[in-house]
Design a protein that fits this description.
single chain; 415 residues; alpha/beta; Purple Acid Phosphatase, chain A, domain 2; Double Stranded RNA Binding Domain; six-stranded mixed β-sheet; 18 strands; disordered C terminus
């Protein structure tokens, strides 16, 4: 069986206030074509389908259009899990209907965990099957009970142990398939410890959020044929274990990721095991560039920044100028330089001032046009936080988790 692993789409995400819907649509179109060309029989999406718990209607439409087109292929099933940015309620709402089209959506753990052990059989041959232990992002309430007065360190230890036990319990529930020689795949949206910072593309500063906290791959069941991971945006294997892998995000989430090569992971299962693994590069639908130097240097650099093909979207640029001049004056000069060129400057920063995202200072902007996570990101900006800094990104992750918990609690009160 051929399986394709992807994650961290973050549909609905904006960069410096600019809409990325065109990139998202082009990626989903490419993904559908790749599934057809590679004869993929199972698509695994390991969390963070959306960038916020309350994605815009147009973003939801893009997601459902993709699922409709995927189901039309008939030969490809899907298992989609929720991430920390996703609303479990939003993902789960149509799950009963989507299941009829062989699209299994697990936004949060099911009341009966056996329902999250999913056998995928594309044909009549049982030997061409796989079993998926569909584990979504695990929130604290999913793996432990609150102990009044418990020390923080003890609680974190119990959280990690709760996650390990959860995976071992799921593996136990899949034993009947293992005995039949069916490979078992697990999913996850979490952080596994890396031997070096370069392994993950994320600084190891000891700061983690909820049950995303750094876990040891060696504590997971070792007879999973493959563990499809999401949350970290750089594609990589966990340590020396190629079968525990992050597919990474399909496009740079910020200018700090502009040099990363993005990919999805193609897997070939047979004879009760993973036979082959191959990263498939994702085309860069829009290039992101960072520039640092003087205005004169920028004037010489700009002519070389062009779309690589007619199909590419205009490149986006972040400019760091060393000229000692106020941002307003510099922004006007940069705007003049790029006039009538197929590029867009999203952000201009000077040596004297903090980053300024122009879209938020427009008199036409209304907060009604933005999701809560975007408003929170702007609040971080106004506080002087660098939006590309890892600590700021993790702060946004915490806000996304709180927003999701708030929505879940609101639904419980309604019910």
């Amino acid at each position: 069986m051929r399986v394709l692993h992807t994650a961290d789409w973050h549909l609905g995400q904006r960069l410096a206030g600019y809409d990325r819907a065109e990139e998202h649509a082009l990626f989903l179109k490419w993904l559908l074509q790749t599934i057809q060309e590679q004869d993929v029989q199972l698509l695994l999406v390991a969390g963070d389908i959306f960038d916020s718990a309350h994605p815009p209607q147009a973003t939801m439409q893009l997601y459902y259009d993709f699922l409709k087109n995927l189901s039309a292929l008939e030969r490809c099933s899907a298992v989609i899990i929720g991430g920390n940015h996703d609303s479990p309620a939003h993902l789960n709402a149509p799950s009963g209907l989507l299941k009829r089209f062989q699209i299994h959506v697990i936004g949060s753990p099911s009341a009966d965990r056996d329902d999250d052990v999913i056998k995928i059989t594309p044909g009549i041959d049982l030997l061409d099957s796989v079993c998926v232990c569909a584990v979504p992002y695990l929130r604290d309430r999913d793996v432990l009970q609150v102990v009044v007065g418990e020390a923080t360190g003890a609680r974190e230890d119990r959280l990690r142990e709760g996650v390990y036990q959860y995976y071992h319990d799921m593996r136990r529930r899949a034993q009947v398939y293992h005995e039949r020689g069916i490979p078992i795949i697990a999913t996850g949206h979490l952080t596994l410890q890396a031997r070096t910072n370069a392994d993950s593309g994320v600084p190891d500063d000891g700061l983690h959020i909820g049950t995303l906290g750094s876990l040891e791959g060696s504590r997971f069941p070792q007879d999973f044929a493959y563990v499809a991971l999401g949350h970290l945006h750089a594609p990589h294997a966990s340590g020396d274990c190629e079968s525990m892998r992050y597919s990474g995000s399909p496009f740079p989430m910020s200018f700090s990721e502009s040099e990363q090569e993005k990919s999805v992971t193609l897997l070939d299962f047979g004879e009760s095991r993973l036979r082959h693994l191959e990263p498939l590069p994702i085309p860069s639908f829009r290039k992101l560039h960072r520039f640092g130097g003087t205005l004169a240097d920028l004037e010489r650099w700009i002519p070389g920044i062009l779309p690589e093909s007619e199909a590419d979207l205009p490149p986006w640029i972040e400019v760091h100028l060393t000229d000692e001049c106020q941002n307003t004056a510099l922004s006007d000069k940069v705007t003049e330089l790029v006039q009538e060129r197929p590029v867009e400057v999203l952000k201009v920063m000077s040596a004297l001032e903090e980053p300024a995202s122009r879209v938020w200072h427009s008199s036409e902007v209304s907060l009604q046009d933005y999701a809560p996570a975007e408003v929170f990101a702007e609040r971080c900006h106004s506080a002087g936080l660098d939006p590309d800094d890892e600590a700021t990104r993790r702060c946004r992750d915490t806000f996304a988790e709180l927003l999701s918990l708030h929505e879940a609690r609101s639904l419980e009160l309604v019910e």
